[in-house]
Amino acid sequence: MKHVVIAHLVGQVAFNPEILHFAHHYGLPQGLSAYAAWVKGKVERPVDYIRESFWRGYAFSDLESANEICTGWLDTVANRRIHGTHRQPFMNAGSRRSPA
Questions:
Q1: pLDDT digits (tens, 9 = 90+) for 30-78
Q2: Taking a C-beta distance cutoff of 8 angstroms, is the pair 69, 58 a contact?
Q3: Is the dihedral of CA 47, 20, 23, 26 positive or negative?
Q4: Is the distance from CB of 20 to CB of 13 less than 8 angstroms?
Q5: How many CA atoms lie within 13 A of 27 on its CB side?
Q6: What is the DSSP string of the chain?
Q7: What is the dihedral of CA 7, 12, 16, 22, to 10 degrees?
Q8: CA angle (1 as vertex; 46, 28 as ends), nearest 5
Q9: Backbone phi and psi for residue 89, each to the nearest 5 degrees, phi listed first
Q10: Phi, psi of 60, rounded to the nearest 5 degrees
């Protein structure tokens, strides 16, 4: 992204200093290697799942009804599916995490 990477130097990438400050403030990792296809897919897959499984076929008249329908969809569909790596339903994922 042009607003994040301002220059490609020999063996290094020059980041926009404001983006680095933002990332440091929120504890975000500093950049990934360019063309990290395995990362891009992991980030974009949930968007496709939500679009195909939830957004299509629903019509919302206001935000309150959208939130109500979304909560029902999360409880009956999304959180019940089995995670591809952990082989457990998504609804059980929070119980495995240790407190921060």
A1: 665 555 555 566 667 778 888 888 888 778 889 998 899 889 988 888 8
A2: yes
A3: negative
A4: no
A5: 0
A6: -TTTEEEEETTEEEE-HHHHHHHHHTT------TT-HHHHHHHHHHHHHHIIIIITT---SSHHHHHHHHHHHHHHTGGGSBPTTT-SBGGGHHHHSPP-
A7: 160
A8: 65
A9: -60, 150
A10: -115, 135
Whose structure tokens read 């019509």? 59
Question: Tens of pLDDT along 66-99?
Answer: 899 889 988 888 888 877 777 787 777 655 554 5
Residue 12 phi/psi, 5-degree rounding, is -140, 165
CA dihedral for 49, 1, 40, 80, sign (positive or negative): negative
Nearest of 35, 24, 27, 26 to residue 1 by alpha carbon: 35
